[in-house]
Design brief:
Radius of gyration: 23 Å
Largest sheet: 5 strands, antiparallel
Oligomer: single chain
Strand content: 15-25%
Number of domains: 3
Number of helices: 15
Structural class: alpha+beta
Distance between the termini: 47 Å
Length: 380
Amino acid sequence: MKEVLSELEDLFVKAKQTNEFEFILTLINYKSIGAMDSTSNLHEWFDSIEFYKALYNGLEDKEKTRIGCLLYSTFFENSDFYNILGSLCNILMGYRGSSYLYWKTKKLERLLGTGEKIEMVSEKLDDCKKVRILKFFEDNHFQSIRNSFFHSAYSLSDGHYILHDTEAIRIEGLEKGSFESKKFLYPLIENVTSFFDTFRKLYFDSFSSYKEEKVIKGFFPNLTDIFIHGTEKGLRGFTVKNTAQFYGVWVDSMILYDEKNDMWFAKNIQFGHFDIEKIELDEQLTRYEKKDNIHKADAEFFNMVDKVVQRYQRDEMPRIINLLIKFGDKKYDEWTKEQNIFRKNSLPKAILLFYERTILLNLHLDLKEIKKRINEIKPK
């Protein structure tokens, strides 16, 4: 875990060095006027896990296991946690952060599941070469534990956690329907607790590090001076001078913390959901256009596809179709070169995801070659 936590610290440090203004925006995580603990779920997550930790450390046997499962499952749920990880990765890659990366599905009809959020952020972590953080999620996130616990589909007996009506859990290459709490579950809880403690400390230390006023350069939207407001209590916002005119008078834009009313507020800044989504999608499209392949998971990519299709903008649709073909071709090339028959037989499903979506969305291209490939790889 020491190397994982060191890599997490490096993510914070390097993001700040790369683009301090975007780093500050990620810390503030502004969504709307209001107190931190009402406009973000991050602070309740901090407080609740601290509470569960105290209970967990004072209990034994079944009571310890139950609270341990609550702590473990809650750790993987928080959307703002993933937003911040993803935003820090974006900053490292030269893009902007966001408060809405892994909040809900494209149509906002449901919250993303833990596995979905981990899949969404994993491609960014891979792009940033944060392999140890990726390994942390791979080694410690077991969706069957979370699902069985939150759905009361488990029982406890003789020190074992037994799964009911839930997919088996893979431990050391074997599918199991139960495991020993002390030998398997408790070490997982210790790992997520260590990750949580470090993330929480890095987040609050970053806020506290701004002890005085300073001026940095940032894009708003053009490169300009950003006046950062630091106090004894830490970061309290920023001001960008002379950003707009009202009745011939220049005014400043700002996001500030109001000590008296314990709330964050923005002034002379417009937040239009359509504009925010357009900027974020343009950066996502650009990032994937520069990528050689999708290496870890395609969840983020297809979430982007769905958003582009839902918007159906003339400048975005050709780009997403070209990307579908690009990554479909990459996977097809992998299929043609694969010598392992079992691996080769598993690849067509992934290829078809890209090619069949291309045919469905195509606006102008001749798709004879793609249709030929589909017929070639489809099971006979």
